[in-house]
């Protein structure tokens, strides 16, 4: 598979030079950076810290004079360049680095043209710009990841409530259960980013989604081989009741056992809300095999559950 190409456009007026290495490291995870441009008035002493980083990281400075006091001409230069790059059609996506909401319409326009847009900015970045991106990354998270001892300022944007995240995951699981589909860990991650482009487990102190999900009480992860799925956490008392009920049916059937189809019908009649995937199994016979003292045997094309006390 061919690696994706990205154009990196940085607003020097709204982003500190201290973030450049984390920015480049993060973007390299998505693909090759073919354009690296930074916009600002380089005659101003305000950008002196950036000047040291430009040559080191092969970033092309684009001069934009501040013709009018209080007006940000850097925005216009970035927007014009972004559209020029878009029309060359030689990149798969853009990374817009700014904490300014003025680029919200630009991001929407790039996405309308089928380009992936990754936004990066500080915690103060307004919500409209964050939500316009396919993925938004908080720069403070990148700094704290690169320098674990770095303290991170928290704002209302820094952490979306964990309860809201858990509710969203539960909704995904229930939607998939209705169509008899398992919910994979990867799907959870991608759908959370679709819902909340600025969702990042690093905002909660984790570097892996699986570790973050272990915090929640209403969901659990189930591993089958190399596949990890996310399910509703089972009620242990209910699970024990169901297990006991199934074992008793099998035991009463004697040596001849009971057909799995019959066993399943009886169980679903008693426990109407029972869903096999809630217990980490894709098939009913797998669940039955997991029960103590029960063995699944095959007679021709018929599967039976037999008690082996």
TrEMBL record:
Transmembrane segments: none annotated. Gene3D superfamilies: 5'-nuclease, LOTUS domain-like. It comes from the Bacteria. Coiled coil: none annotated. Residues 161-234, 238-309 form the HTH OST-type domain. InterPro entries: LOTUS-like, NYN, OST-HTH/LOTUS_dom. It holds the Pfam family OST-HTH. This is NYN domain-containing protein. It comes from Dorea amylophila.
